[in-house]
Amino acid sequence: MTTTHPAPAPARDRADALDASDPLASFRERFLVPDPELVYLDGNSLGRLPLATRDRLAHAIEHEWGERLIRSWEERWLTLPEEIGDLIGASMLGAAPGQVALADSTTVCLFKLGSAALDARPGRTEIVTDVDNFPTDRYVLEGLAAQRGLTVRWIHGDPIDAVRADQVAEAVGPQTALVLLSHVSYRSAALADVAAITRVAHDAGALVLWDLCHTVGSVPVELDSAGVDLAAGCTYKYLNGGPGAPAFLYVRAEHQEALRQPIWGWIGRHDTFAMAPGYERAPGIRSMLSGTPPVLGLVAVQEGARLSAEAGIDAIRAKGIALTEFAIEVCDAVLAPLGVTLASPRDPARRGAHVALAHPRARELCARLARHGVITDFRTPDLLRLGLSPLTTRFTDVWDGIDALRRLL
Questions:
Q1: Fold annotation for 12-50+312-408
Q2: Considering the entire predicted model, what is its pTM?
Q3: CA 136 to chain centre
């Protein structure tokens, strides 16, 4: 009889060596890290503050607002939603200019896009999503369905794996108007096949809306080449845009003339300052905007997005894989014998930039880790997430955080 034993745990000096050879290591110095002893493994919920953002906000407050006052709208502010959208689109989303804009919260962006998509498929009565999708996505769809008398068809998949194209094919049909899924699962970090699922939905005549909240700034995606219709995502995670930062939305160029979003506001009107009666939509992606842009939030997003663009999404993805691979290696060696199981895909090609660990006492352990200077994230009922932000997370952070969990267990 052969007895198997877990692989020996990597020593901390292995983490030190990985940090020493990390090509993105210097980016951490460009963020505010007031407590170097704090192990922060929650960048997939809220990214750290870039030093450039602090300086840019001071300039925006003191000069653009304080000195230039109302003149700053035409000097700089009015074009920020599209300017930052193009930056994010080109550097991280595989989107040509004129298709991405910064707008409202993710929830409002999803509502706008979902409503516009349903209007574009009159007579169809079904919306497709999965039971493990992020709550706001599900709630928005349930709200739209209730308002319009439509049916939500639920995909019941593997909670660790991503929704597959064949599962979508079984759910869609001639009555499907819209499919809304997440590219990266907020729970397990599983990656869905954007291109394959988009093709399946299109074959059924439906439009597709992708949630990119855990994608942007961590995993490359090619929206244009995949034929994606619509997408939305937040900017306060891997883009380090700050709490409550405005989200972005993507509308494929070929749909922009036909789609009509439901919240008509003055910024989305043609010739905004004419103050004319009636609503005439602005051309292009600007028609998806509604009210006055949140300038301070926008400039914060711009600085975070610039850092990610400078690092390059391919380099960011490579480090995200290296971090999660190292985390899983250490967990297998020191946490698995203590009852912790991996709740993320093992294949790095099918995993985003966070790692989910399952344990019956996950909620308690998350709170106790925080008291010991290790910030992680809990997701009901039994998941502890390690958010590994490639621009700020070190391999030693991963080792120290997992070692702290080992000692608690």
A1: Aspartate Aminotransferase, domain 1 (3.90.1150)
A2: 0.96
A3: 13
